[in-house]
Specification:
The complex is a heterodimer of chains A (434) and B (226).
Chain A: H1 4-14, H2 16-36, H3 38-45, H4 50-81, H5 97-107, H6 118-134, E1 144-145, E2 155-156, H7 165-175, H8 177-186, H9 190-221, H10 226-236, H11 240-243, H12 245-258, H13 270-273, H14 283-308, H15 327-352, H16 360-388, H17 394-415
Antiparallel strand pairs in A: 1-2
Helix pairs in contact in A: 4-5, 4-14, 4-15, 5-14, 6-8, 6-14, 8-9, 9-12, 9-16, 10-14, 12-14, 14-15, 16-17
Chain B: H1 2-19, H2 28-49, H3 57-75, H4 79-99, H5 103-127, H6 135-138, H7 143-163, H8 166-170, H9 180-190, H10 193-214
Helix pairs in contact in B: 1-2, 1-7, 3-4, 4-5
Classes of the chains: A mainly alpha (434), B mainly alpha (226).
């Protein structure tokens, strides 16, 4: 028996007019406010000190709100992969689902178990989120821009232009594990503890291929500044993914591992460890871990796009807009960057619902027995090319990658070891017949 | 001023001695009190010295955080907290390094210490956690000699800093132009290349040695997972 009030409320919530109307009103109000207040912030936009701070405020909010959209997208993609609809009850096409999720998180009881290490228990989710958000500081979102009303100041859409850009990304990424490890330790729960220990071991292992892949790229680009790497790619039109497909794969796989995403989410592994490191967390503290995971994914994608996929460069194999500093070019570049990040996140999500989770020894074997040797070989090869001055010649780089790939396949075929399967240094299991 | 300086150092040494987990009488509260007086003196001295320079507030703040974190590394009874205070110490020191334009060392310190070594420490500490704190966590081995050695060292440094000629004291860090990475990398790979290679070989030897020591005979390999 359907309650007529519930029915009516549900019908209103599910009508497309509500969400589109609300969206249109909000967007209109925002546009009107921006238009009316333009003289107020015009000066700030052209100021080299205030503009990065504005960029920071805008991008931080954009990222935090896009995590909500990411969660919806994740569930929709899960539905698509598993041949079902996904969330489609709240709002038109389920578009209000993130709001409902957020409300649910806020309204749930916030439990702190009695036997936990309270300071660390409270610190862990905050640390996870803060660290995963601080990587954004060096992303060059849309290059440089010269506003029409201030033609002699060039402002950069990057929050902090560091000489050590890529190193900063590495440093922040390497701090990312503390949230998970502390959560696992402080929870005073053996499942959470195993999750934390796994996360620590995994993070240490996967930082090596990440660093090796980055080394190949840095040898090619010759600069650690992210904006310089992006500018090189935009001007030559030769994105580094075309030159270095294998290092790109190395970094892609490692960033899956660093973001704790399937197939590397051994730290939460709900089938074995109940929920892993966040078993004891509820309500908003759990939501912070959730947000941190998505924020981590967005940072990882943004860095990957900047390093390998041309950053804000809209078209591959062309130097269109590479030197333009007009305001409309800024919009196109930003759009191109965000679109690439979105594609990358879509890939992360598709992989999550396609590939099963690795077992822990497989995960370690992938890192230490395949990714690290290949990485070392690639670094040595790229260094040789750099000495010969061929590091930006496409045929030399692709040849190197091809040789490395063939070497990998040959070694794998020769070694005769199974890639997956049982851990072979353990004794056989003898099961007594019943 | 030198009396104040020496008083500060003495207070620091005595306070640290009392605050170190000695295992005999629990005097850590008293130690913290003494340390707080020392810290107050330090803050007073810093405010007086740096009053005219608002840019130095970051320096003062980060140094105080680093000092506090360093104290807690040695005095905290839970090893996990000690490791975390070490992380805080590394982060505070790395901020000081950024302030000194040593951006590369900042990145390296964060990656190597906070990102790799301390994660490994935490990993080991967590694996070795017991129901109650181990004896080597609850008492420090040689608190007196340790504090004395630290006190003597700090006195030397303080005396040197205090006696430097005023011209040298006033000298601001020279602004080095150019790329921070190039400034580090070029001398490292030209002038100091032999030293760099030797360090590399040494580290490799240490790595091989560590593996040789840690490797267990194959017969017992089924006891643990790595």
């Amino acid at each position: 028996m359907q309650d007529p009030v519930v029915f009516r409320v549900e019908r209103i919530l599910r009508s497309p007019w509500l969400i589109f109307g609300a969206g249109a009103v909000l967007a209109g109000a925002l546009a009107l406010a921006l238009w009316l207040l333009f003289p107020l912030y015009k000066g700030l936009l052209a100021d080299p000190f205030w503009f990065p701070i504005l960029v920071m405020a805008i991008m931080l909010n954009l990222i935090l709100s896009s995590t909500a959209i990411c969660i919806l997208a994740e569930r929709k993609i899960a539905g698509f992969t598993q041949d079902r609809f996904g969330p489609n009850r709240v709002g038109f096409w389920g578009l209000l689902q993130p709001l409902a999720d957020g409300l649910k998180f806020l309204l749930k009881e916030d439990i702190i178990p009695t036997q936990v290490d309270k300071p660390l228990f409270l610190l862990a989710p905050a640390m996870a989120l803060i660290i995963s958000l601080s990587g954004f500081a060096v992303i060059p979102w849309a290059g440089e821009v010269r506003w029409p009303w201030a033609p002699d100041t060039l402002v950069s859409t990057q929050v902090a232009s560091l000489d050590i850009g890529v190193l900063y990304v590495l440093a922040v990424a390497s701090l990312g594990v503390y949230g998970v490890v502390l959560a696992g330790y402080a929870s005073n729960n053996k499942y959470a503890f195993y999750g934390g220990v796994r996360a620590a071991a995994q993070m240490i292992s996967y930082e090596l291929p990440l660093g090796l892949g980055l080394l190949c790229l840095l040898l090619t680009s010759g600069s650690l500044r992210l904006e310089e790497v992006v500018r090189q790619q935009a001007q030559s039109g030769m994105w580094y993914v075309f030159l270095h497909p294998l290092p790109f794969l190395l970094i892609l796989v490692s960033s899956f591992a660093e973001a704790n995403r399937v197939p590397f989410d051994l730290a939460e592994a709900e089938q074995e460890l109940v929920g892993g490191f966040h078993t004891e967390y509820s309500s908003m503290k759990f939501a912070l871990f959730f947000l941190a995971e998505y924020a981590h994914m967005i940072t990882g994608s943004a860095v990957l796009v900047a390093l390998f996929c041309g950053g804000w460069a809209p078209l591959p194999f062309s130097s269109w807009l590479a030197d333009s500093t007009a305001w409309w070019a800024l919009l196109i570049k930003l759009g191109a960057y965000l679109a690439k990040v979105a594609v990358c996140i879509g890939l992360f999500m598709l992989v999550r619902w396609t590939i099963p989770r690795f077992r822990f020894d497989q995960l370690m074997r992938i890192a230490w027995l395949s990714l690290v040797p290949v990485g070392i070989a690639l670094v040595a090869g790229t260094a040789t090319l750099t000495v010969l001055g061929l590091q930006r010649t496409w045929w030399a780089c692709l040849g190197l990658n091809l040789v490395a790939l063939l070497g990998m396949l040959w070694t794998a075929a020769r070694s005769g070891r199974t890639v997956t399967g049982r851990q072979d240094d353990l004794p056989d299991i003898h099961v007594e017949p019943a | 001023m030198p009396i104040l300086l020496i008083l500060m150092l003495v207070l620091g040494a005595v306070g640290l001695f009392l605050a170190l987990p000695g295992g005999r009488a629990d005097l850590s509260r008293l130690g913290l009190l003494v340390l707080a007086i020392g810290a107050a003196l330090l803050v007073a001295g810093l405010t007086q010295q740096l009053a005219g320079e608002p840019g130095q507030a970051l320096f003062a703040g980060c140094s105080l955080v680093a000092l506090l974190a360093a104290l807690r590394v040695v005095t905290h009874r839970k090893p996990v907290y000690s490791a975390l205070y070490f992380v805080l110490l590394v982060v505070a020191v790395s901020i000081l390094l950024v302030r000194m334009q040593a951006e590369f060392v900042f990145g390296a310190l964060l990656i190597v210490y906070a990102g790799a070594i301390l994660v490994t420490y935490l990993f080991v500490i967590m694996l070795a956690q017991q129901a109650r704190p181990a004896p080597y966590d609850t008492r420090s081995r040689e608190p007196l000699w340790g504090c004395l050695a630290g006190f003597v060292l700090l006195t030397q440094v303080a005396a040197y800093v205090y006696r430097r000629p005023a011209s040298e004291q006033a000298a601001v860090l020279p602004r080095v132009g150019g790329d921070a990475i190039l400034n580090v990398a070029t001398p490292l790979l030209t002038h100091y290349v032999v030293g760099l290679e030797i360090v590399g070989v040494l580290l490799l030897a240490a790595l091989v040695g560590a593996i040789a020591i840690a490797r267990r005979p194959a017969a017992t390999a089924d006891e643990g997972e790595d």
